[in-house]
Amino acid sequence: MAPHELKSLVRTIPDFPIEGIQFRDITTLIGHGEGFAATVDWLAEKVTASGAEAIAGMEARGFIFGAAVAARLSLPFLPVRKSGKLPCDTISVDYALEYGSDTLEMDPASVHEGQRVAMVDDLLATGGTACATAKLLRQAGARVEHAFFVIDLPDLGGAKKLEDCGVAVAALMEFEGD
User: Fold this and answer.
1) DSSP E strand boundaries for the chain
2) Is the link from the previous residue into 60 a cis peptide, with omega within 30 of 0?
3) How far apart, in Å, are the Cα atoms of 156 and each of 58, 61, 98, 119, 123?
4) Is the pLDDT of residue 177 over 90?
5) 55-79 pLDDT, tens per residue?
6) Sign (positive or negative) of CA dihedral 41, 65, 168, 49
7) For the purposes of burial, counting CB atoms within 10 Å of the CB of 167, is it exposed (0-12), middle (13-18) or buried (19 or more)?
8) How many CA atoms are closer than 13 Å to the CA of 152, on its beta-carbon side?
9) Is 178 within a domain?
10) Percent over 90 (pLDDT), the chain
11) Helix, strand or coil, per DSSP, at residue 20
12) DSSP 8-state symbol, 34
């Protein structure tokens, strides 16, 4: 399927979660077998070209795409979780949200020193979670140079923020506005 066909599978829900936001809902994309497979194929092609040796996905929708790509490429999948979700010793990073802060955690034993890890997620908005994920992975010893997204919201500046963190960005599709 062509990128414009995949884009047409993403549902837009106005005024969610608050008035003025155009929520880009990927459940309609993942609910379309051919569209989901084509999206995973696109991501897998980008990950392969990057030379990644493992894939990290951020909770929660990054698990959907990241794990599918990792399985397709027979690569390890590294889940980056919200605080308190992992039953083992973890490393963590705090990061700022629009209103407040949050914490991401991971098992540091899941990464080998110098391992090339690509980040995969469904959507890039402001880049805060993605930059925090890159920082966390690097803290664990990974080389993080690439991040791949299904959707980019370029007006929110996330790609620039990630590039400033030393991470190259590619997205399958873009939606203007929030």
Assistant:
1) 11-14, 22-25, 54-58, 77-82, 91-97, 100-106, 116-124, 143-152, 168-174
2) yes
3) 19, 19, 12, 19, 11
4) no
5) 999 999 999 999 999 999 999 999 9
6) negative
7) buried
8) 19
9) no
10) 93
11) coil
12) H
Single-letter amino acid, residue 144: V
CATH code for the domain in which residue 68 is found: 3.40.50.2020
Domain for residue 30, yes or no?
yes
Q: Over 80: is that where the pLDDT of 97 sits?
A: no
Mean pLDDT score of the chain: 95
Cα gap 4→98, rounded to integer Å: 31
Q: Is the backbone peptide bond immediately before 87 cis, with ω within 30 degrees of 0?
A: no
Tokens (6 digits) for 93: 């990073």
**Residue 144 token pair:** 């993080």
Give the number of domains in the chain: 1
